[in-house]
Amino acid sequence: MALKWEYLGEQKLPHPGGGFLGDAAYTALFWRAPVPGGWLVMAKYDSVKYDAGGTSTSLTFYPDPEHAWDGSSV
Fold it and tell me: Whole-prediction pTM value?
């Protein structure tokens, strides 16, 4: 059975070492997929400035047996 991923949105993140005021160094993109007992949540981070290391992806489990989370609090 294939997971059905739902896109939740994106967030601009500053460079952790500082940087120019208002500049975003990373863009974080978020998805979720319902699984038994909760959600799989995937975050993909793309470096957009400072040659900060390219792309990375994280995956975590969010417990929510009733699947009540609407995804808006990412």
Answer: 0.76
